[in-house]
Design a protein that fits this description.
Distance between the termini: 38 Å
Radius of gyration: 20 Å
Number of domains: 2
Shape: globular
Number of helices: 14
Bound molecules: 5,6-dihydroxy-NADP, zinc ion
Largest sheet: 6 strands, parallel
Structural class: alpha/beta
Number of strands: 8
Helix content: 40-55%
Length: 395
């Protein structure tokens, strides 16, 4: 293992911490752009509480509403225009991953004099990785993406049907204000998809990272086991604040870089899912629920021992009288059963998606992230034909 770890985001975690927003924001600027989604934060009263806290700290407020799920570059451009026109010097995201990702890019695009799509990797010759952004404060209302405490943003282009990402140090939020009470209103389906997203962030590194990372393995297993245990409770009873708290913490931990540190992490399932949600506008975590078991069954044949470990350590399955591959497949079945039990889809047909665009999804999946052979990195790397095979098995 040889690696660097860097995450400068100041994390403030706990039920009730929303009331600190004004006090935090006034350390970073005088006028904030609050970015929100389709209205959930207004209906829940979170928006009004946030504004009250800001106003009592003497911070002025402008607004960018209506960030859509799978946020579009056009919304980023719209938000940056508002920030410039209003003279905002801080961006506050209050919402799910879509709102947080759009906010990060609004913060960068406000200081970038060009087409904001240049900032997102989509196979262009000159990818302009942002080096400057307004200070960002994230206030997640949904436990899923981990965007609250990382430097990534995933943005879609509705015209070209490309959904892709950028990672840059200037996109690390200055502060992540993570108040699990804000997730109490998340409906059952989104709660379940979020749990799947959290688990998949960790399984990506677990199955496609390098060997010889025993401590990271145990971190990853801890996140998976906890997300399963507390995720079930949060889905069963959305008002269970203890469950919401544990799931919210799992979301932060699963993708703030700590669990993946030193693993040489690759995210193949995410790359395939982004292609799906670009074309069909499905919820990211739901797409992962369909793809991850299919992907696991495909690659388990190459690394049955790793997947047998997953079966033993996550689900307590016994390998006595079983070869590794049989045990591996039993573990993946259990994982898929879990996803189904919390209400996730596990087949593409549940979205009405057929095989018509499979080759296109495979092309899109390797558009930005690929090795010297044009394969999707992972263990083993996947050719486009392999990706199509995985997709077929998910029909
Ligand atoms: O838009 P509103 O009205 O707020 O409603 C949202 C939306 O309809 C609703 N919601 C959020 N908080 C709620 C709530 N409803 C009731 N009560 C609340 N407290 O949930 C719906 C989904 O929201 P969205 O933000 O789209 O979901 P999620 O957090 O799963 O974010 C998904 C996006 O993040 C990207 C995904 O690709 C996708 O575009 N990702 C970002 C990552 C990152 N930056 O690190 C990594 C992830 O792997 C992922 O790719
Ligand atoms: Zn994800």
């Amino acid at each position: 293992m040889k690696f660097e770890f860097y995450n400068p985001t100041h994390l403030i975690f706990g039920a009730g911490t929303l009331s600190q927003l004004g006090e935090i924001a006034q350390k970073h600027g005088k006028k904030v752009l609050i970015v929100t989604g389709g209205g959930s934060v207004k209906r829940s009263g979170v928006f009004d509480r946030a504004v009250a806290s800001l106003k009592s700290a003497g911070v002025a407020v402008a607004e960018c509403t209506d960030i859509e799920p799978n946020p579009r570059i056009t919304s980023v451009a719209r938000g940056a225009d508002i920030a410039r026109k209003e003279g905002c010097d801080v961006v506050i995201a209050i919402g799910g991953g879509s709102t947080m990702d759009a906010s990060k890019m609004i913060a960068a695009a406000t200081l970038y004099d060009g087409d904001p799509w240049n900032l997102i990797g989509h196979g262009q010759d000159n990818w302009v990785i942002p080096t400057r952004a307004l200070p960002i404060i994230t206030v997640p209302t949904l436990a899923a993406t981990g965007s609250e405490m990382n430097k990534g943003a995933v943005i879609s282009n509705d015209e070209s049907k490309v959904k892709s990402f950028v990672q840059a140090n200037c996109l690390f939020p200055k502060v992540a204000l993570v108040d699990p009470e804000l997730t109490l209103t998340v409906p059952k389906d989104q709660t379940a998809y979020g749990v799947c997203d959290i688990i998949t962030h960790v399984t990506e590194g677990y199955f496609s990272g390098i060997d010889g990372t025993p401590i990271q393995d145990r971190f990853a297993e801890g996140v998976i086991i906890s997300a399963i245990e507390w995720g079930q409770k949060a889905v069963a009873d959305g008002s269970d604040i203890e469950a919401r708290t544990q799931v919210q913490w799992a979301s932060v931990v699963a993708l703030n870089g700590w669990v993946q540190a030193g693993t040489n992490y690759a995210p193949p399932v995410h790359m395939i899912e982004h292609a799906l949600s670009a074309h069909h506008n499905i919820t990211h975590g739901a797409g992962l629920a369909v793809l991850n078991p299919a992907y696991m069954r495909f690659v388990a044949k190459a690394r049955p021992d790793r997947f047998a470990q997953f079966a033993r350590r996550i689900f307590g399955l016994s390998g006595v009288d079983k070869d590794d591959l049989t045990l591996a497949m039993a573990g993946i079945d259990k994982f898929e059963d879990f996803l189904r039990s919390i209400g996730c889809p596990t087949r593409l047909s549940e979205f009405g998606i057929d095989d018509a665009l499979f080759s296109q999804y495979a092309e899109d999946a390797v558009l930005v992230v690929h090795d010297e052979n044009g394969h999707l990195p992972g263990r083993p790397p996947l050719s486009k034909a392999d990706i199509v095979t995985v997709l077929k098995s998910a029909l």
